[in-house]
Amino acid sequence: MFRILFAIVAGLVGAALLHIVIILALPQFTGKDAYSRVLGLFEMDSFFSLTNEPGATGLANEDPYLRVAVCAFSVNNGPTRFVARGRVPFWSFAVYDENSNEVFSMNDQTAVNGNLDLVVATPIQLVELRKTPAEALSQSILVQMSGEDGYAVLRALAPTPSYEETARNFLTESSCQTLRP
Amino acid sequence: MFRVPLLIALALSITFGVGILSTVSALKATVGFGAIALGPWIAFPNAQTADTDPYAKAHRARAGKLLYGGAEGLQFTATTDDSGETLNTACSYEISGLTPPARFWTLYTTTPTDMPLKATPDLPGGLNAWTVLRKADTSFVIHVSTTARPDNWIAVPRIGAFKLVLTLLDTPAAGSSGVIDLSMPKIVRTGCGNV
User: Fold this and answer.
1) Closest approach of chain A CAs to the CA of B54, in angstroms?
2) Closest partner residue to B14 among A8, A24, A99, by Cβ?
3) Phi, psi (deg, nearest 5) at residue B94
4) From the CA of B127, how many Å to the nearest CA of chain A?
5) Using a CB-CB distance cutoff of 8 angstroms, which residues of chain A are in contact with residue B32?
6) Min CA distance, B84 vs chain A (Å)?
7) N or C: which end of chain A has fewer CB within 10 A?
8) Least CB-CB distance to B72: which of A23, A92, A100?
9) Is B14 in CB contact (< 8 Å) with chain A?
10) Which residue of B has its CA nearest to A104?
């Protein structure tokens, strides 16, 4: 009797340990996290506009009034620059690292002249950029990222169907490219 | 003779059975800690950050959603009405009041598994801050029902349980300071069946 009780207690302790191990390890191996889904679109260095129906990796415009574009990027070969211009009632932009942690987010009211112009770089690349400030980057927001890989999400608002085309154009004309020196 | 292997088998089956089931149910039950609950509306302002809890990280890695950054907005979901009853398309609901301050908001419905509901292309599946009809004091009343309603109407297909998703874009509420004092619209059940 005592032995059965001992086996049950040992089992429960093991269950608690297993619970903790699974919770902590899960983000590393689901393969369904947002970064893997963005990478699965095979669109490096350009914004990919999502469709209203779930695409190949299950990403979609979930909000009926927000059009979303995603871009996977790497600052391995140099800083990445994000540019978007146009007039939509509202846009917002967020950068996430490969663990889907937020690095930076902004919207049109926090942008210079309402345009998106942002450079993501590693700390070393940032030092280089600041040492030799390029004329083209004088209006850019410089963001530091400790990792190398990540993804960016750009959302544009289309409050009524008549704004649909404007929002789509805003997203297709946006760019997400490695900055060449 | 088989007592010891039997005991080990018992301990191992409890370990894996209870361990895996408790993990799966914990991840299904909640998005993590750090929720803001304002009546039936629940939001997780820190779920996308690096310093959120391990449950939130595991949940978002499994769900794979594109979360809203702090400066983008804050997403509230409701699975129950104000009296605590689960939202069901067999009933009609009235969402009334005002949203917390935000530059824009959108409201739409999803299934319990977060798939957006689309009634049919001709029916209004959602509303936003521009399209909603307001009273003189800028408050609004939105009807959620399977059958047509006058004024603000969100059509839902007959699927049973559903969720309401209210996204506040560019809102000071996402900064989470003083968010507890904010008032959210009320969700009141107005009737069930063919009424």
Assistant:
1) 6
2) A8
3) -125, 120
4) 9
5) none
6) 25
7) N
8) A92
9) yes
10) B69
Residue B155 Cα, gap to closest chain A Cα (Å): 13
- The residue written with tokens 């900055």 in the block is A179
Helices B54-63, A2-29: axis angle to 10 degrees equals: 60
Structure tokens given for A25: 């390890």
Selected for mutation to probe chain B from A17, A18, A171 (highest B CB count within 10 Å) is A18
For an interface test with B, give the residue of A38, A100, A104, A162 to mutate (most B CBs within 10 A). A100
Q: Where are the beta strands (DSSP E) in A33-88?
A: 48-49, 66-74, 80-84
What's the rounded Cα separation, in Å, for the pair A61 and A57? 13
For residue A148, what are the CA distances in angstroms to A27, A31, A124, B110?
Answer: 18, 19, 12, 35
pTM of the model: 0.87
* Contacting residues for B158 by C-beta, under 8 A, at least 6 apart: B89, B90, B146
195 residues of chain B, pLDDT tens digit each: 678 888 899 999 999 999 999 998 988 877 778 788 888 999 888 888 888 888 888 888 888 889 998 889 899 999 999 998 999 999 999 999 988 888 899 999 999 888 888 767 788 888 999 999 999 998 999 999 988 888 899 999 888 899 999 999 988 766 655 555 678 899 999 988 765
With contacts defined as CB-CB under 8 Å, which chain A residues touch B19?
14-19, 22
Residue written as tokens 């919770």?
A23
What ranges make up the beta strands (E) of B84-185? 91-97, 104-110, 126-128, 140-145, 152-155, 163-169
Using alpha carbons, select from B39, B116, B43 the residue that is nearest to residue B76.
B43
User: Do A16 and B47 contact (CB within 8 A), yes or no?
Assistant: no
- pLDDT by residue for chain A (181 residues), tens only, comes to 788 898 999 999 999 999 999 999 988 888 888 888 888 887 777 888 888 888 888 888 888 899 999 999 998 888 999 999 888 999 999 999 988 899 999 988 888 888 899 999 999 988 888 888 777 788 888 999 988 899 999 999 999 989 999 999 999 999 888 887 6
Contact list, B110 vs chain A (CB under 8 Å):
62
DSSP state of B86: B
